């Protein structure tokens, strides 16, 4: 009974914090103001992270990335906290472009997706924001990779 009350208190404390609403809303404007960690996974994320929503009782708020790391949490693998989504996406496409440049012939979409740390399903259903689909890069000539960073930053 006592344990149940402790959990209920943690849930109430977390859900009454305005930062919790930023997490639920995946508020990009809250990124940089705080990070949150999940006790059960040992991971910290930005408020806008697309990861499954954690149970409020398992959430801890931190003012800085450093504070989360000092508390023993590691960065989320979906999107490292120091990078914007655009920077992460550019890095994925550039990684794929380097593979295309090193490979004779046309690599399969599966190989490109694996190299970029993506699933083929995600690539087919949701292309990387502001960047060409891996399949488009794969099927066009090798010059498709030139200037990926420039196109996104314009």
* Domains (count): 2
CATH superfamily of the largest domain: DNA Methylphosphotriester Repair Domain
Number of helices, where a helix is a run of at least 4 consecutive DSSP H or I residues: 8
Radius of gyration, in Å, reads 19 Å
Structural class: alpha+beta
Assembly state of the chains shown: single chain
Placed side by side, the strands forming the largest sheet appear as: 3-1-2-4
Residues in β-strands, percent: 5-15%
Query: Any idea of the CATH topology of the largest domain?
Result: DNA Methylphosphotriester Repair Domain
Stretches with pLDDT under 50, minimum 5 residues:
122-126, 138-142, 149-154
Q: Find the count of extended strands (DSSP E, 2+ residues).
A: 4
Q: How far is the first residue's CA from the last residue's CA?
A: 58 Å
Assign the CATH architecture of the largest domain.
3-Layer(aba) Sandwich
Shape: elongated
According to CATH, what is the class of the largest domain? Alpha Beta
Q: How is the main sheet built?
A: 4 strands, mixed
Helical fraction: 40-55%
**Secondary-structure element sequence?**
HHEEEHEHHHHH
Calculate the mean pLDDT score and round it.
Answer: 75
